[in-house]
Amino acid sequence: MLSYIGFRVLQVIPLLFAISVIVFIIIQLPPGDFLTSYVDQLKLSGNDVDESMIMNLTSQYALDKPLYMQYFIWMKNILLHADFGTSFQYKMPVSAVIGERLLLTMAISFISMVVIWLIAIPIGIYSSTHPYSPMDYAFSLIGFIGLAIPGFLIALILIYTVYSQTGVAITGLSSPAYAEAPWSMAKVWDMVPRMIIPVVIIGLSGTAGLIRVTRGMMLDELSKQYVTTARAKGLSERKLLWKYPVRTAVNPLISTVGWTLPTLISGEAIVSIVLNLPTTGPILLNALMVQDMYLAGSFILILSVLTVLGTLLSDILLAVLDPRIRYGGASA
Amino acid sequence: MFNKKSAVVFLVLTLIVALLAGCYGNSANVTSGNEPSSSPAAGGSSAGASPSASASAVAAPGSFKQSPFFDGKSLPPVADRLPKAPKLTNEVPDSFYKYEIGTYGGTLRTVRLDPVNDADLFIIQNEPLVNTPGMLGEEVTPNIVQSYEVSDDQKQFTFTLRDGLKWSDGVPVTTEDVRFAVEDVIFNPELTPIFPLWLKSAADETGTPFKFEVVDNLTFKISFDKPYGGFLLQLAWQGWRGYNDLLKPKHYLEKFHKKYADPAELEKSIKEAGFAQGDWVQLFTSKDLLNTEATYPKALGFPVLSPYVLTKTGDVIEFERNPYYFKIDAAGNQLPYIDKLQSTLVQNTEMVNLKILAGEVDHSYEFLSIPNVPLIKEKESEGGFKVYLNTLHRTANDIHLNLTYNDEAWRKTVRDVRFRKALDLALDKDEIADTVFYGFAKPSSIENTKRNLDEANKLLDEVGLKKDASGYRIGLDGKRFTIPFEVSSQFADFATLGELVIEQWKPLGIEVTLKQIDAKLYDTRNKANELKATIMFTPGPVQWVREQWGQNIWAPLWDQWWNSGGKKGEEPPKEALELFKLIASLRELPQAEALKKREEIRKNIGDNYWYFIHSEDIAAPVAVNARIGNISDTGWGIAHNFAGEQWFFKS
């Protein structure tokens, strides 16, 4: 087991190196760089742009150096000083930009995830044990709607409905009165009702997907012979269900932990943009669009590390939970 | 995958709206106010002699009042914080509104889409050395300086600073600060590797840099070897210039300047800031605050002369009033009236609209576009705000054909003035005003205002563009003549207009295509002379002193030739050269004479149809808290924004 983990960890290193190089190149692929868009923006709004300022900024942002040097400096600072560089857009260290929003992003993502699991798994199990019943159809319908309609659209509809019906404009996660207040119980309580909407929207498609997966897995399991055998031997229906098929059916949950970990950090970018949530998702999108390369690069690098770690984690968890995988893994 | 794709589409849409809004700044009574005889400097070439009297004669010291915000903050009395001759505010002309003496207090809330830039706040904060009421009014009045004097030959400019004027940290402003900015920054080749064009004689690439002379503690002289009457407007308004180029807080910046700083201390600061050893230039640039950077984190603690000082950065940017601000109203109240500014970062323009509807925004001119006006207007009373329809300070979307594109047949055709006239005649400018601007604009008087298809077709026949069997005209190279518009996706109205132009030019038998391209790609292709036809706004027709009449778009090579003094690009033909000269001559003339020249520029464009300026008097909607006083819908919206220190909340 230990050697398996050790081997997997070693595998991660060249992978991350490759990812970081590719990320860095892709961010720089579009024509121009951050300064071109910055200078264009200034010119379009009618500002006189001083040539000297552009030159000074170019050297300040090290944009005059060749690509490999930029990469080298970036990597060196990350590895030696844990310094991800400075965001061109925010004029602040990348860690500060991301850090400011991380707590909230993780809170929303985590709550959404828990809500998804709490809702989807019981429904999935119910649907599979009562297949083709009216309730199963009802859940399927809701599930398909949740899968088919993109979250941002639901968000828009919700904002519109709430505004047109009640006159309340949902313009962020905390009401203006608390927006700048320090953290306190009152602020948290102010946030809770406003958190419901993003959680519901982000959760909806996840819930729908998970219901389908759980239902499908359960139906597979339920038709297997060990279930029939157990039932024939008189095992109570409840114990039979929870002890065997359900345990197998939640396997996909664990194997997707690898993808869950990065989404905890990245948040749902589009939903966040529509709902004006101060999370990290919109930052990444924006950074990519204006080629704020250290911010975008560092962000993607962190996401990649989390994806890789998450996959590793889910492999290990699966190995722990499912003996079939463990035997296969040990021989690898 | 679907989510991601939609994200991109959604984002692009959002961005378009945002940037479309960004280009709606606003515009003023320039067209109506072109009677040079009413200008104070009409008498001759000696513009603006000692116009300072009005400012100093207003309120006797001792009768000044301050905002209760400062009560109990252990500051010196307000009379000591103000200069001996404070400036009586005159940011907008009397015709805009009747100035009301305001009351102190409140927080002005704005929203922004950029992490660190807020155009609303930038304009409020910006303070030029001299100003021109209404942003491009007919006179130039002293602002930060107490008075200025221009020599008769328009070569020498003498400025006197206000005695007792102080930075926001209470340190007096003297000519030493000007000398520092000039000698140690502008004339330091390390900090300023390329000498700024506007500080050379007549803003000419081949001109010699200005000469600088300190007369005494408060007076300094700037002189050029050629007439440069436009210099005052350069200071007052061109490029939204602030005082920051010629006036820097030496006491703050000297510790980052190699000439003044202790080497060991300097090295320590460089290391702290994370720059390479000895790289003081980067340290200095990262500390020095340009006027466009008023909302950046580095503005924290930086001494300024603007109405507000930055107190907080992040998603919410906050400013508090500057205790040493130098302007007063007629009753002796120190400005600004409003105590605080607060700017909130939002994710998209729709959210801006929603925030306006919810009454969470007190002023927004950047993100409101004409198509949104009905929606916002409907909720005016509920949200407690008011929509002002000011004018845009530039055109919105002019039509350009590249006269220097590298294709002989194309060049021959588009350089034929009859061809350009025909296309102009085929434009239905009323329809453009109705469709693109919802009627909030009118056909521009620079070129034809009435559509005449018969004459247009006749002209095209004369040019020699014959029609093929399917009714399309054949170019001089024997291929179908096509005008391929490539427009920046940054502004949604470009495509709206493009679609319309395709329809309007169809009866001529000319094939027109339209493609939206990324803003950066647009810029790259424009600079490389690769755009055949495009749509882009130009400031020239409205902000007439600006030298931007789209020359770099409709004739990139001629523009390069002109700007490089004949070294690059191609020499323009006679008529175009005349236009370039006319435009450049504005820089040399005092304002009254420049106004006359402006007519000649308009006439030259009207005769030659260099590009198609279809609309004028375009509306720029601004959403403002209904309780704010000293604002109106006369003039450019940006001019009202500029006079933000005069706003106050009515109780």
Can you offer a commentary on this structure?
The complex is a heterodimer of chains A (about 325) and B (about 650). Chain A has about 325 residues and is mostly helical. Chain A is about 75% helix and about 0% strand. Chain A has 17 helices and 2 strands. Chain A is globular, with a radius of gyration of 24 Å. Chain B is an alpha+beta fold and about 650 residues long. Chain B has a 4-stranded mixed β-sheet, covered by helices on one side. In chain B, a hairpin with a 3-residue loop joins β9 (about 310) and β10. The radius of gyration of chain B is 26 Å and the shape is globular. Chains A and B meet through α2, α3, β1, α7 and α14 of A and α1, α9, α10 and α18 of B.
Helix/strand layout:
The complex is a heterodimer of chains A (332) and B (651).
Chain A: H1 2-28, H2 34-44, H3 51-60, H4 67-81, E1 86-87, E2 92-93, H5 94-129, H6 134-148, H7 151-166, H8 185-222, H9 225-232, H10 237-243, H11 245-249, H12 251-255, H13 257-266, H14 269-275, H15 281-289, H16 293-321, H17 323-331
Antiparallel strand pairs in A: 1-2
Chain B: H1 2-23, H2 53-56, H3 78-81, E1 87-88, E2 107-112, H4 119-125, E3 130-131, E4 141-142, E5 145-150, E6 156-161, H5 175-186, E7 211-214, E8 219-223, H6 231-236, H7 250-253, H8 263-273, H9 280-287, E9 308-312, E10 316-321, E11 327-328, E12 340-345, H10 349-357, E13 363-364, H11 373-378, H12 380-383, E14 385-391, E15 398-401, H13 408-414, H14 417-426, H15 429-435, E16 442-443, H16 453-463, E17 482-488, H17 492-505, E18 511-517, H18 519-527, E19 533-536, H19 551-554, H20 556-563, H21 574-588, H22 591-608, E20 615-616, E21 619-625, E22 628-629, H23 637-642, E23 648-649
Parallel strand pairs in B: 1-11, 2-12, 17-18
Antiparallel strand pairs in B: 3-4, 5-6, 6-8, 7-8, 9-10, 10-12, 13-21, 14-21, 15-19, 16-20, 22-23
Helix pairs in contact in B: 14-16, 21-22
Helical residue percent band of chain B = 25-40%
Amount of beta strand of chain A: under 5%
Which regions of chain B contain 5 or more consecutive residues with pLDDT less than 50? 1-59
The largest β sheet of chain A comes out as: 2 strands, antiparallel
Strand order of the largest sheet of chain A: 1-2
Query: What is the total tally of β strands of chain A?
Result: 2
Order of helices and strands of chain A: HHHHEEHHHHHHHHHHHHH
**Distance separating the two termini of chain A:** 10 Å
Distance separating the two termini of chain B:
53 Å
Kindly report the name of the CATH homologous superfamily of the largest domain in chain B.
Dipeptide-binding Protein, Domain 1
Structural class of chain B: alpha+beta
Count of separate DSSP helical elements of chain A: 17
- Please tell me how large the radius of gyration of chain B is: 26 Å
Mind summarizing the main beta sheet of chain B?
4 strands, mixed
- Average residue pLDDT of chain B: 86
Q: Could you tell me the strand content of chain B as a percent range?
A: 15-25%
Radius of gyration of chain A: 24 Å
DSSP helical segment count of chain B: 23
